[in-house]
Amino acid sequence: MWNAAGGLSLVLGAIGILLPLLPTTPFILLASACFLRGSPGFHQWLLRNKHLGPVLIEWQLHRSISATVRIKGLILILASFAFSIYMVPHMWLKLALLCFLVALVSFFLRIPVKESVADRGENL
């Protein structure tokens, strides 16, 4: 049951990369949690993934994201919502999307950013 939930979450997360209103990150985090309980092998596969692994490990250890992930996330959020707002024909839908955008960005900016010690100016 955990593996089925993890697989479904992973598929929904992958679809969320392409669909603006379907969130990717919560589904990937859910898949990781499900695989941790159902299949340690799948969980390790996720952690070893070159794109997802570092983000998942950072979240598991520190409940934070890197500055690079924050910048990329903001760019993708803004781009997908801008495209959606441009494509919808009705003004009320555009306003609803704009409200969702504001809510999502305000939530996303509340996630702590863990700064690497090696990236600090005093180490250069």
UniProtKB/TrEMBL annotation:
Membrane topology: Multi-pass membrane protein
Main location: membrane
One Gene Ontology cellular component annotation held by this UniProt entry: plasma membrane
InterPro entries: DUF454
Domain of life: Bacteria
Record's subcellular location: Cell inner membrane
Keyword annotations: Cell inner membrane, Cell membrane, Membrane, Transmembrane, Transmembrane helix
Segments passing through the bilayer: 12-36, 71-89, 95-113
Transmembrane recorded as keyword: yes
Protein name in UniProt: Inner membrane protein
Species, as recorded: Vibrio gelatinilyticus
